[in-house]
Write a structure and sequence with these properties.
The chain is of the alpha/beta class. Helices cover 44% and strands 11% of the residues. The strands form four sheets. The protein has a six-stranded mixed β-sheet. A four-stranded mixed β-sheet has the order 11-12-14-13. It has a two-stranded parallel ribbon with strand order 7-8. Strand 13 and strand 14 form a beta hairpin. The longest helix has 27 residues. It is extended, with a radius of gyration of 40 Å. The termini are far apart.
């Protein structure tokens, strides 16, 4: 007991001495951290280190690390949120939306309108929008600038969404966007219609039956969700040009192998006698849409893929139209999804629709008649075999021009043979054999001789001539002695397929890639294949005096006035003039198409239709009639003249109006 007390007292004395030494050191150091003044040199060698010294240093390190992590946390904040895009046509009441739940939310998910975003505090509003755009590439066809508005909850516990009212210069931050819905998802309201397949249309059973071939294999029809361009029937183009980089199908060798199997006559003994007839008669009736229905569908497509607010200007010369247009379309900065504004060099005209329509009319005319890309007849045009043009992607450029004309208000080609239109739309032939589809006139004559043969002996006698050695190039390799009269349908089909499809297969595929790869025509082809087919195939309806008269709305003066009487006399002369142009265009020197071109810039009503009605207006005592292709108006001077004088002046105005502002 005595020894323990002595030890305790010794320890207590040492502690007191140590505390006194610390107090003395603190008084000697007026500023700074007291703990730094304590060192092993100032501490008695035999004195234990005070607990406060060690704990104080450790707590400071922890505090410093905490401050550092807090700074990092304050520097970059991340917000992961679900994002839901409300379609433009989503039902609402005065800008108040119900939260999409249940079936409505499931439907949005099917349309690809639900996703996830990661917003960070350093993001600007443009960065935030870019992150949101990346979630909805598919429903908006990779439109990275589609307009939208943010939606926020109407209040705490509310079950509706509203558009927040913000100033014109307000800039959203990542934190504000993320917290707009609290812990819920971020909601936006698209200000642009979606590019979704129109699966809600119903098709009757008769229409479905029309899309079945003789092998009972079902083909796609309008309104069906399945694509019309199935992967197994698509054929890849034979080039890797940027314009045609989008693949549209499988290897062409597979299709050619099927073709060889079809025409291989070495196994004809085992084939049934009905096979040739089935091969020849394989065709599909295409449901015909009314002009009004075509216009409605194309106008919807135009509003989805063309931005009216943005303008793409094109400068061309009439004498070098195809050359200048090709150079403009080939520019890297050229954007065909913007509204095209055409300027004819040397002419005074502001494009409000008229110059654009005339530009595409003249451009398609040069493309099909003046270039070396196409051949054939006006009602059965085919691509011309041209390896150099394929290497330079000229057919792809031609397809791009055709697509732009159809969607941007120009005329449709309406000149391809049914077989070519089948390949461009369906990627397979569904039409009957037409000898007029064969471009080579000599081959046509020879095939007509085959068609007129009446017996096997006569057929074999014709084929023994050296003039028919071309059949071997077509793949008809059956020996002449084995060919029978019953083989004529298959022989004609083989030659027809060679000259209309397989001989120009690469040209057709490159043309198809350029056509369907521009302005989302592939989507239109999938949803409405019969519409695109009708625009490509030769099916022009000739204008008549009566049909042209119905297009015009006459702006008369007040009934009973002197001007009204003069205007009625002018209209009587005009209607007589229309009838003369229909009955005897050689006498007038003017056709009904010329009158239509003089007024609108195109010879026929374009697939997109006109944005306003054609008008006939009256003006003062001018010398000649005038026309405005932009306002779609034909203006007559209010002069009392006889028919012959009226006819002479109108003919002079139409034939002398080559170019805008030139009469």
């Amino acid at each position: 007991m005595v020894d323990r007390r002595i030890n305790v007292e010794a320890i207590a004395g040492a502690v007191v001495a140590g505390l006194q030494a610390v107090q003395q050191q603190q008084s000697a150091t007026p500023s700074g951290n007291p703990s730094t003044a304590i060192s092993s040199a100032n501490t008695p060698r035999n004195s234990p280190m005070l607990p406060s010294q060690f704990v104080r240093g450790k707590s400071k390190a922890r505090a410093a690390a905490g401050n550092e992590s807090k700074k990092k946390k304050d520097a970059i904040q991340s917000y992961e949120r679900d994002i839901i895009c409300i379609p433009h046509d989503y039902p609402h009441k005065g800008g108040v939306f119900n939260f999409p739940r249940g079936k409505a939310r499931i439907e949005l998910g099917k349309q690809g309108l639900i996703g996830k975003v990661c917003l960070q505090s350093w993001m600007s509003e443009d960065d935030i929008r870019a992150e949101i755009y990346s979630c909805f590439k598919k429903p908006f066809f990779e439109d990275l600038h589609f307009p939208f508005k943010y939606l926020q909850s109407a209040g705490a516990g509310a079950k509706s969404l509203i558009v927040p009212a913000v100033g014109d210069n307000f800039q959203w931050s990542a934190k504000q966007v993320a917290q707009m819905g609290g812990s819920r998802a971020v909601y936006i309201w698209a200000q642009k219609a979606l590019m979704l397949e129109e699966t809600e249309q119903e098709v009757s059973n008769e229409e479905k039956d029309d899309w079945l071939d003789e092998d009972d294999s079902e083909l796609p029809f309008v309104g069906e969700a399945r694509t019309a361009l199935s992967a197994q029937n698509r054929i890849e183009a034979g080039n890797d040009s940027p314009c045609c980089s989008k693949s549209l199908g499988t290897k062409s060798q597979q299709n050619y192998r099927q073709y060889c199997q079809l025409i291989d006559l070495t196994r004809s003994d085992s084939d049934s006698d009905e096979a040739p007839e089935q091969t020849i008669q394989r065709t599909t009736s295409i449901p015909v849409l009314s002009n009004h229905e075509m216009e409605r569908i194309l106008q919807q497509h135009f509003s989805r893929v063309v931005t009216k607010e943005a303008v793409q200007r094109i400068n061309v010369r009439r004498s070098y139209l195809l050359q200048d247009a090709t150079r403009q379309f080939s520019r890297p900065s050229f954007d065909v999804s913007k509204l095209l504004k055409v300027c004819f060099i040397g002419e005074s005209a502001v494009d409000d629709g008229g110059p654009r329509r005339e530009f595409f009319r003249l451009l398609l005319h040069e493309l099909f008649s003046a270039s070396d890309l196409f051949a054939g007849y006006p009602e059965s045009t085919l691509p011309q075999h041209n390896v150099m043009a394929i290497a330079q992607s000229q057919f792809c450029m031609a397809g791009k021009i055709i697509a732009a004309s159809i969607v941007q208000g120009g005329p449709a080609p309406a000149c391809f043979s049914p077989a070519a239109a089948d390949m461009l739309v369906h990627n397979e032939v569904r039409s009957n054999v037409q000898l007029t589809d064969i471009v080579d006139a000599e081959v046509q004559i020879k095939m007509q001789r085959i068609s007129n043969a009446t017996s096997t002996d006569e057929l074999q006698s014709i084929l023994r001539s050296d003039d028919f050695d071309f059949r071997f190039d077509c793949g008809f390799s059956k020996p002449t002695a084995s060919i029978k009269f019953e083989d004529i349908p298959l022989f004609m089909h083989t030659v027809w397929m060679h000259y209309t499809v397989y001989r120009v297969h690469g040209e057709l595929q490159q043309l198809r890639n350029g056509l369907l790869g521009t302005l989302h025509l592939e989507h239109l082809c999938e949803t409405h294949p019969n519409l695109l087919w009708s625009l490509l195939v030769a099916n022009k309806k000739c204008l008549t005096a009566a049909s042209l008269q119905e297009l015009f709305l006459v702006c008369y003066s007040t009934q009973g006035s002197n001007d009204r009487m003069a205007e009625e006399a002018i209209m009587m002369n005009f209607y007589d003039y229309l009838q003369d142009c229909e009955d005897n265009p050689e006498d007038t020197g003017v056709t009904l198409d010329d009158i239509m071109i003089f007024t609108t810039g195109v010879a026929h009503v374009p697939p997109l239709g006109f944005d306003k009605a054609l008008q006939i207006q009256f003006m003062g005592d001018e010398r000649l009639p005038q026309a405005s292709t932009c306002s779609l108006s034909l203006k007559f001077p209010r002069n009392r003249t006889g028919y012959n004088t009226f006819k002479e002046k109108l003919t002079l105005a139409i034939l002398g109006s080559v170019g805008f502002g030139n009469v």
